[in-house]
Amino acid sequence: MSDSSAAGAQARTRRGGARERLLAAAARRFYADGVSATGIDTITAEAGVAKMSLYNNFSSKADLVRAYLDARHEEWLGLYRRRLEGVRDGRGGVLAVFDAYADHATFAYEHGFRGCGLLNAAAELPAGDEGRAVVRRHKEEVESLLAGHVEELLPGRPEEARAVAEHLAFLLEGAMARAGLEGAGRCLERARAMAADLLDGLR
Q: Residue 82: CA atoms inside 13 Å, Cβ hemisphere, count?
């Protein structure tokens, strides 16, 4: 590798490292303190990088917020996929969705669990903001995953499966809101039990 190629690779590595530190710092501060209350200076100080480094990696604070929302979505998907390992049927798949949300609630958040980080951020963003669209897509994907699992339990009955999935999605979101207010995942455990009862009653 030439000297210039090696220098370029090192620069890309530094930029990648700075981006990850900035995203990690933003995730901590946005969740603990809120999007609006968290300034660029706070994020760069916590990440240990210069302000210019932020603008080398993100075009604006709004761009950083969207990256945070995308990262949180991917983080949840990782939890869900791990919960799916060993699942053998639609019932287990539905409960894996609930378990992945419960797993997110057990993370070591600085000020404790405050509910869904995506919805918390969306509540601060103005109507029409692209970040709200990111959150909506996440919620729609979760409902779609639920629908796919329910369809395994109700083969040939797609409309009924979608209705049950919507019911489950609303149950899950309500439990997340209450759990966030209580600062604990107890409501998610109750919601999971309710979901299991609902699934066991399907005919």
A: 11
Q: 26 vs 29, 38, 48, 138, CA distance in Å?
A: 5, 8, 12, 19
Q: Which residue has the tokens 């639609």?
A: 90
What tens digit of pLDDT does each residue of 131-143 get? 999 999 999 999 9
Which tens digit of pLDDT belongs to each residue from 101-118?
A: 999 888 878 888 899 999
Residue pair 152/89 in contact (Cβ under 8 Å)? The answer is: yes
Helices 61-84 & 90-105 angle (0-180, nearest 10): 130
Listed in sequence order, the residues at least 6 apart from 30 whose beta carbon sits closer than 8 Å to its beta carbon are 38, 65, 68, 117, 121
8-state DSSP, 128: T
Of the pLDDT bands very low, low, confident and very high (cuts 50, 70, 90), residue 86 is confident
Tokens of 100: 């992945």
